[in-house]
Each structure stands twice: as structure tokens, then as C-alpha cells.
Amino acid sequence: MKRFWKEVTIDAGRGIALDGRPVRTPGKVALALPTPALAEAVADEWRAVEGKIDPRAMPLTGLANAAIDRIAPDPATFATGLAGWGESDLLCYRAESPEPLIERQAAAWDPLLDWARKRYDVHFVVTAGIMHKHQPPATLARLAEAVAARSAFELAPLSTIVTISGTLVGALALLEGATDAATLWAAAHVDEDWQAELWGRDPLALAAYEERERDYAAAVRFLALL
After folding, report:
1. CA distance 63 to 70
2. How far apart are CA 185 and CA 193, in angstroms?
3. 3-class secondary-structure state, position 166
4. Largest CB tally within 10 Å, which of 30, 49, 158, 164?
5. Which of the residues in the chain have pLDDT under 70?
6. Contact criterion met (CB below 8 Å) for 218 and 63
7. Do residues 117 and 173 lie in contact, with contact meaning Cβ atoms separated by under 8 Å?
8. For residue 140, what pLDDT is reported?
9. Alpha-carbon distance 46 to 3, whole Å?
């Protein structure tokens, strides 16, 4: 679809309107945001459109659409699926060698696990290697409760952050202000950065890395605007 509107406004319900006509999600629901700051940021994405609409250039709108269409109709089911990441959290699977990488993982990941242990009163099974280890049911239950307590507009960016980082624990720490976006990004890429230092990044890997970084930054910004 090409740009057809001249003016983008925000109505009294924090909905986005183009020349006075409300914008609707792909599911035909009004695109209304929970906070003035997020509404303004989404409106700015529509104001910035030149020529054809490029959804990749409108990540906040995409996350809002996901929250409204995919999550809000059944947030409990979505939260349950997202909480499942706790069973195979990145932070619990350590390298067997070399020692410098083991130390780097510990430095980046142990503080996040320590925070979760204290915050949720849980225990984590940490192992070396890639063989799956089950986490205690009580741990998974507490993490699931923490995820289920979040709104649809929180779950949408949280899902992106978990998927990109591979760690539900880290994403919850970010959501609750126990870590910052840069620290979590670095923690999530300890292994990849280690390999890049040794062998470099080929152009395809670098392009994928940069795309993930853009999606991650958009999700972090979305959360900050709630």
C-alpha cells in the first residue's frame, strides 16, 4: 500500500488516525496504544512513511499489532508458550572449554541467574555441554507466574527479546530493571562474539546479527514507552 494520507493524529483513546480515519490492525481492530508515549512513537512511524509502506521500517507498529491481534485474545496461552523458554534457558548451558570462554560466560550469565534466584526464590540446574537438563518444576512454575502477570503489550516485546537472546531469565531481568539492554545483548552473544573474535564474521552472519540487533532495539524501546 502506498501512502495516501497527509496527516497522522492521535485520538482521545490513543488510537492512530490517518486524515481522521482510524488505523486498524491486520485483524481489523483499532490500533490503540496503552500510553501516550507509545502512541506518539507509533504515530511517528506512520508520519515517516514515504511512498510504499515498509513493515520492516515500522517495528513498533508491528509489535502493537501482535499485542492486539495475537496476544490480547488469549494472553494466558501465549504466556504459557513463552514461559516454556525457561526449560532451556541459554544461561544454564555452559561451554566445556576453553577456559577463557567458560570464564566469560560465567561473568556475563551468573549475575542474571543470581538475580533470578533471589527474585523468585528458585534453583537452576546449570550444566556444561548441550545435552538437555530439566529445570525443577517449581522453578518453571515461578517463571511462568512472572510471565503470566504481564500484559499483552508487555508480552509482545518480551517475546522478541526472549527469542533473540535465548534467555527468559535475562528478559525478565531487563523487564524488571535488574539489567540494561546493552548488558543483556552482550550476555546473549557471548558465544557468537567469541567465535567472531577468533574467526571473524562473514557478510551473511553480520547482516543477520545486525537485523537481530535492530529487532531487539525496537522491542526494548517498545517496553520503555509503556
Report:
1. 10
2. 11
3. coil
4. 158
5. none
6. yes
7. no
8. 97
9. 9
Q: Parallel, antiparallel, or unpaired for β 8-10 and 16-18?
A: antiparallel
Cα dihedral value 25, 28, 34, 39, nearest 10: 50
In tens, the pLDDT along 135-158 reads 999 999 999 999 999 999 999 999
Q: Which amino acid, one-letter code, is at 149? A: A
Residue pLDDT, tens place only, 73-89: 999 999 999 999 999 99
**The predicted structure's pLDDT at residue 160:** 98
Q: Which tens digits make up the pLDDT trace of 187-208?
A: 999 999 999 999 988 899 899 9
Q: How far is C-alpha 39 from the chain's CA centre?
A: 19
pLDDT of residue 222: 98
* CA distance readout (Å), 116 to 122, 143, 148, 173: 7, 9, 16, 8
Cβ pair 92, 166 in contact under 8 A: no
Looking at the chain, the number of H-run helices and the number of E-run strands are: 10, 5
Please give the Cα distance from 158 to 10 (Å, whole number).
25
In the sheet with 8-10, reading across from the earlier edge strand, the strands are 8-10, 16-18, 21-22
What local confidence, expressed as pLDDT, does residue 201 receive? 86
> pTM surpassing 0.90?
yes
Rounded Cα–Cα distance for residues 149 and 211 (Å)? 30
137-to-60, 157, 180 alpha-carbon distances in Å? 35, 26, 28
CB atoms within 10 A of CB 125: 10
Q: What are phi and psi of 94, to 5 degrees?
A: -105, 155
